[in-house]
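Notes on consecutive records. When two proteins share a document, each keeps its own sequence and its own token line. Never mix them. Below: protein one.
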Amino acid sequence: MARIINPQDLQAHLPKLISAKKQISHMAIDLTVHKIFRPRKCGQLDFGGSEFQPAEWKVLPPIKESADAAYGWWELSNDVYLIQFNETLQLGDRELGLIQAHPRLIETGCVLTPQLVKSLRQDVLLPLVAPKSGVRIKENARIAQLIVLELDEIPG
């Protein structure tokens, strides 16, 4: 069995929160977008892995709507992207994190692939699919939620 860890108990281990008041709820920690990547060159995958080549990805810069704007926007068309978060967190031996789409992201028509993680670092990238109509995402937008579980026993 497992229990959900109260996100308030993790706040001290989340040094890169933009606003703890807005990002920590009773069950989850809202994660904010730091960078968005778009595929540049296709990768390849085989059964054994000897011919594996990862895709090449390009960082998309957010565009500011005016010179005095504090934050920019990403204008995403119908495609697959990789999302990098601002927040970092190292989980304990008996802890497991589940990253899932923020409900508001789902309401924009986007799909964010859920992922189980042992840590949340800058190399954790999640696939995001933008809808046919496209989507605008502002820098630091809350786009995902992290739920941390404490496991009764470590699977082995």
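Protein two starts on the next line and is unrelated to protein one.
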Amino acid sequence: MSKTFVPSARTPAVLTANLLRDGLSVWKSGDDWTTDPCAATLFEDADLAEFALLDAQAQGHLVVGPYLVEAVRNPDGTPGPAHFREAFRQRGPSTEPAARTPAAASAPDAATHAPATHAPATHAPAEVAHV
């Protein structure tokens, strides 16, 4: 667990990792892993969070890189990202073609943060004369 972040009722945490098989982002939900971040377990007790992290680290046959990350409790009680990095991870792989379009992103402000697409240059590069 991070030395600067300790889960509490004021600053809850979720446990996240990536699936070993395909690299998808997953969150701990009870005894299982889910790709739905809204179904993640919110940890408000530092000892329970640390125990869950140790358990996740022992599941190297399923997940890689498990870590606790600060979260917020949404008005409906579900966990939400507290920082941009986690919000970005929740949108899914940015290497998938569907993730490159603003309509594919799940965040309401995705259109303002959509990855830029660059069209190939339509002109040939200028020749350089060597002297």
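For the record: Confidence is low (pLDDT under 50) at residues 103-125.
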